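request received
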Amino acid sequence: MIYDTFIAPFAEFEFMRRALVGTIAIAFGAAPVGIFLMLRRMSLIGDAMAHAILPGAAIGYLLSGLNVFAMAGGGLVAGLVIAIGAALIARTTELKEDASLAGFLLISLAVGVTIVSVGGSNVDLLRFLFGSVLGLDDQTLLLIVSITTLSLLALALIWRPLVLECVDPGFLRSVSRAGGPAHLAFLALVVMNLVGGFHALGTLLAVGIMILPAVTARFWARDITMMIAIAVASAGVAGYTGLLLSFHAGLPSGPAVILVAGALYAASVVVGPVGGLLWQAFPGRHLEA
Amino acid sequence: MSTLRCAFVALLAATILTSVPAAAQERLKVIASFSILADLVKNVGGERVEIGALVGAGSDAHVYAPTPADARRVAEARLVVVNGLGFEGWLDRLVKASGSKATVTVATKGIKTRKAGGGQDHGHDVDPHAWQAVANVKIYVANIRDALAAADPAGADAYRANATAYSARLDALEAAVRSAVAKIPAARRKIITNHDAFGYFEAAYGIKFIAPQGVATDSEPSARDVARIITQIKRQKIPAVFLENISDPRLMQRIAKETGARIGGTLYSDALTEANGPAPTYIDLIRHNLTTLAGALTS
Amino acid sequence: MGEQLRFRDLTLGYERHPAVHHLNGAIETGALVAVVGPNGAGKSTLFKGIVGVLKPLAGGIERGGIDPRDIAYLPQVAEIDRSFPISVYDMVSMGLWRGKGLFGGIGHGDRGTVEAALAAVGLTGFEGRAIGTLSGGQMQRMLFARLLLQDARVIVLDEPFSAIDAKTCADLLELVRRWHREQRTVLAALHDIEMVRANFPDALLLAREPVAWGRTGEVLTPENLTKARRMCEAFDEQAEACVVEAA
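response:
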């Protein structure tokens, strides 16, 4: 019974095994990025990015038709231009990052819609670009694993300036010129994980697996390394459980994974030891001095 | 001065007179309910007939909503040709509303009908897609010929000649279909598709069209749906998959890889394609479907 | 000794309004200088210029050959995100940056150095605490520990003792004296005139333009202080372009 419920679906069907591998792989890449996004108050960037890549995909479509490489590549370029452009504007002018990003996004979306309608097609480009976790072919799996590996390596490289940029940017500016490039590199990682995630798994799953585990981890750890570990673990659990729900109960796969991630988050808000509601209501006797 | 005016009037008169003969051969206005019927009528009616279709190429007759322009065209027509068998639920009201004095001919009169299958888009008991069997279309052609002759007796001979010629082409088509199917090993004569319009084709030629278990109509299929389809294909050893409602090509590939099935192309059932498409006439449509099926099923 | 910092007709400001106007002069290596003046006198602006965060509107600063990033700087208001999940230990150890660079590991070998710095500011035992749990005084001690680790030849402190308790103040002043004994150049912007008289041998009285500069006793006279107070705080919106020639 246990075997049938928890193991058999993966043993019998290759598409389930691939889905599990894909979800876990992207968990390793996206969760750490998500932690930093949350700490930098950029948690909404995922949804924004899904719309922002439209003009890139549109130009790719105009140049080579419904060619997935052209469209995904175009989307990646558009995402990078927007993320980095917004960051540069925020660093060199009075405008803060959220406003700068909002400006770029709106322009980008308008440009994208214009290109698509002037180009004379009403094909829903974005829908074509976005995949499903159940359809992971070799190429897409390779893409996910590559993105994750690259992300982890890059994060290790820019770890110190990235952390310092979050906690004390003034100090970083005074001892190093690495702050700017580190921040831009981080944004590139965000875009890469998101666009790759969209292409492999669809928008909901890609953004959800980046943000929800991160905000869940906030309630369980006070140290950033621990937070990352918990985020990755929670993403993995969400992936495994979500796929099982999709298999046994017929829920659509992407939303199922995100629902589980969301349930973990909701539970953490209540019972998480760091700032959870239950602990705030019943803090226990104070300690000896 | 008056010589010039005389010459002018003569010229004008000559122009008018030479254009009259064309008017004398005024064509018979016929409206067909959808593109396949329109093609048949054109083949039988030839030059004597001006044919139009209400539901044009690439459009879906099941969900068609008639426009005021359609009412006008129906009102102007002398003959309206319909499939019947519940295919055009919206037609009776349209004809009545248009106040047309046209004769309405049901092209399927006399055809031996089948019961409708799983009923994904039809609520009727009778399967209306009788044109999928080529032999039935010969009856369509006969009915159309008779209707045209009744509306335009002067052209009866022409219509009979056209009908005979076209029926000969249909016989050739029928033979081609049977011989192509014979080349497919018997165990491989089955496909999975969510089309449910091929009942007559299945009955006439022996290729089984199996409905997919589970896969929902448009939104994202769940893991359970995919697992069911894979199990079904493997268990029933179905060689080819024609699932046009799974929009993600990579998911289709995955199902194909995991079951060893081939992914089929597009099958046309309820309408012709545009002129530059693969199925602009009825004969082209059958040939296209045949080639597509045979290509997927012969190893 | 020699000059550590030389200001050449230095004007620093915001949107063309000068906050430091035509400053000329030098700071000797190893000097301990208090920079004093009313609000808006340009003290923070001058420090930002020295550290390289603000570019001069006119004139220049020579830094005796050292890179501005090798100058240790404690700003008046630290833009520190106290909700960030980082420990006191990790925060303080960032002071080793210039020595380690981007990728150099801060490992077990450095533990002793970091712990010594924490001990010097009285924060032994605080290594594992999240920075968000520190009081104002403890935060300032932590930042001083970081400065210690930076091991810089020039140290610039902007209002380092405002809003902290007397004991912390006394302890940190002791550190400043230690730096002076180690012949590092130290500049500090301060409000407390008595503290300056008691601890700082040199002073610069600044009111957008230098009012007096030299030994503390000669600078902080009542006449000078009154003169400085008369400086207008707000920027003159009607000001014309300045045509004073360089000296």
